[in-house]
Amino acid sequence: MAAANWRTINIDLYDPDSSANFPIASLLPSSIPTTSASEVQSLAGQIKQLLRGGDTEGALRGALENVPYGGDSAAKEVHLATVVEILQSTKQSEMSPMLSRIYSSEGGTELLDVLMKYLYRGMSHGSQPSSASTKALSPQPTGFSQIHSRGGGEGGGQTMSVLLSWHEKLVEIAGSGCIVRVMTDRRTI
């Protein structure tokens, strides 16, 4: 009998298709351009100008076509805030027709996949306190800290409701394949 404990053998080393046999970084596209926070800030200004002009679909398309995949975390946060602002300013009756027009256009499937990424990112971001709100902690005599001012602690619920409404409409238009493509895409926003 062999002295090796068979339970500690890493069998993935013997599988040629295993991720242990090639670098995971090779799955990312090598041509992701780097984007600075100032570039994203100027793009956000242009998108907000479209939004103020009443072109919600143009603003959404502009945000989804210019995703800062190669940006730092500050650039990605600015772009996320811009996309969420666009989604919140869209009327519920305009959601389905807008998504249908985007879906039927050239490259529409990819744009809706990017929108789904932002919906999931916004949902995960909404549950965490932002760095600005953690600075404003006020100790209470009870020993607990109050993160939000009284009456404003549930402000993230409206954002979550909007994101869930968009998610519902997006799955109706693009199907559940959109969710699978987003979950398997290595590019992060």
What does this structure look like?
This protein has helices spanning 37-52, 56-65, 73-88, 92-104, 108-126, 131-135, 156-174, 177-184; strands at residues 34-35, 70-71, 138-139, 145-146. By secondary structure, it is mainly alpha-helical. Strands 1-2 form a two-stranded parallel ribbon. Strands 3-4 form a two-stranded antiparallel sheet. Helix 1 packs antiparallel against helix 2, helix 4 packs across helix 5 (108-126) and helix 5 runs antiparallel to helix 7. The longest helix is centred in the middle third of the chain and has 19 residues, at 108-126. The chain is elongated and about 75 Å long. The model is unreliable at 127-136 and 148-153 (pLDDT under 50).
Largest sheet: spatial strand order: 1-2
Quick one: how many beta strands? 4
Computed over alpha carbons, the radius of gyration is 21 Å
- Label the structural class: mainly alpha
Task: Detail the poorly predicted runs.
Answer: 127-136, 148-153
